Amino acid sequence: MSDPLNRTPLHEFHVAHGAKMVPFAGYDMPVQYPLGVLKEHLFTREKAGLFDVSHMGQVLLRGSGGTDVAKAFEALVPGNIAGLKPGGLRYTMLLNSDGGILDDLMVTRYEQQENTLYLVVNAACKDADLAHIEQSLAGIASLERLDDRALLALQGPRASAVLGAMAPEVMDMGFMTSASVEIDGVSCHISRSGYTGEDGYEISLPGDKAEAFAEQLAASDDVEPIGLGARDSLRLEAGLCLYGSDIDVTTSPVEAGLLWAIPKARREAGDFPGAERILRELADGPARKRVGILPDGRAPVRHGADILDEGGSVIGTITSGGFGPSLGRPVAMGYVKTEFAGEGTEIGLTVRGRILPGRVAPMPFVEQRYYRKPKSS
Amino acid sequence: MSGIKISEDHEWVSLDGDTATVGITDYAQNALGDVVFVELPEVGASFAKGDEVAVVESVKAASEIYAPVSGEITGVNAALEDQPDKINQSPLDDGWLFRIRLSDAGEIDELMDEDAYASFVAGLK
Question: What is the complex's ipTM, to 2 decimals?
Fold first, then answer.
């Protein structure tokens, strides 16, 4: 017998909305609703999708004994955390001493409490991440798990209007900023961020208020609940990495094309785990790179497929692949030897023993439509 | 559609003389979700019962289709190439997959009739 699956505070919501439930990272999660993956995906790009991401780990990290927690946390990640303004958030990575990626995460300078970061980590990595952080920052910072909080994502071009009808102040929040907002007596922590390439929000709120809140959002004609199936196809089209598939302990941020998350000052200081490898790869180029791949035909090319050069030698592996509903064609990403990483490079893709043609293509596959604040005049 | 026989892998078989038309059941298309790609066998190729003969892919995953009977492929539903969603819209009719000339007519009797299949599916829930 395997361990019983955990349930998020929205479990009854999923069942009531007809979700097909599957095990994911130890949780019983909705993979799709009656609308189906294809229509859920397209609905999110057209209006707004509501996602339950309560399985992800939410924690507060507080500095103690006069330690600046943001500065201290920089010892574990290559991002600019100390430079975050109150409420600001960034994507970064926990690295091991070889520069391998232990997890990717969102870090917010929590505006509600002094000297505190709010972290959101992947469900499957949660326990290992927290042990790593606690051990690394023992005596100078302490963790508080927010296991009683739910996390919802509302993503899509109508997200701002829908959430704005409940809390007008969210409409002019900048991309990658957060705020504490009271909605109908429920204290929510809302960030303008997401994992679909669309404008949208991630909403942290008390678990016991989550179902009523989700029902209120889902009552809008502009909102449909969306399962993990479409969450995956949306992020793939947006060129975003899935931890465990596209990045893991064997991949470095340079190989993964995540250099934008390592600012110049951190590179110059070289004061993050695995700096030796990462700075070397920066100077000399990595041996392999993550690239977007468009198969020429209609057959989806999936995780694990070999990537071949014109002579038929293996030059890499597909790490994520499937059908992109917004493009109406298969899309994929994977790692290739650096000399094959140029856009337009013709490659072969092994599918069920046959070699199908494809090419290296720029990502994201769909235009990112994140919110840009109008310039104040 | 009357007189169809169904395999435990959720393929229906409609026999006309020595040739059978094969597709997947409504239960199967519903379980797979939106079909985005179908790989069909070559006309003239031979398969034994249980061989992987075709692949039906949804957004999320690829599912193999196993030959419900042994024989030689005599035709395929080429319309599925451009409109794979016919499998969702009309699994028992326009969404048929291929035709196969049986090499062992007796194999058809090993498949379930519709009533038996209904009980089989009820047992899966």
Answer: 0.87
Chain B positions in Cβ-Cβ contact with residue A299 (cut-off 8 Å): 37, 39, 57
Do B34 and A330 count as a contact with CB atoms less than 8 A apart?
A: no
Q: Does domain A1-240 have CATH number 1.10.238.10?
A: no
Question: Contact A314/A308 with Cβ under 8 angstroms?
Answer: yes
> With an 8 Å Cβ cutoff, are A300 and B55 in contact?
no
Neighbours of A210 (CB within 10 A): 23
User: Taking a contact as any Cβ pair under 8 Å apart, which residues of chain B between 40 and 59 contact chain A?
Assistant: 55, 57-59
- Residues A176-203: b if buried by 16+ CB within 10 A, e if exposed: bbbbebebeebebbbbbbbbbbbbbbbb
Backbone φ and ψ of B48, nearest 5°: -90, 155
Q: Is the peptide bond before A300 cis (omega within 30 degrees of 0)?
A: no
Query: Is the distance from CB of A214 to CB of A52 less than 8 angstroms?
Result: yes
Q: Which CATH number fits domain B5-104: 2.60.120.1600, 2.40.50.100, 3.40.50.1240, 3.10.560.10?
A: 2.40.50.100
Over residues A141-176, the pLDDT tens digits come to: 999 999 999 999 999 999 999 999 999 999 999 999
pLDDT band at residue A198 using 50, 70 and 90 as cut-offs: very high
Name the β-bridge partners of A330.
A323
Question: What pLDDT digit, counting tens, does each position of B67-99 carry?
Answer: 999 999 999 999 999 999 999 999 999 999 999
Per-residue pLDDT reduced to its tens digit, A343-357: 999 999 999 999 999
**How far apart are the C-alpha atoms of A12 and A208, rounded to whole Å?**
12
Nearest CA to B54 out of B95, B3, B104, B115 is that of B95
Residues of chain A with CATH 3.30.1360.120: 1-240
Residues in chain A: 377
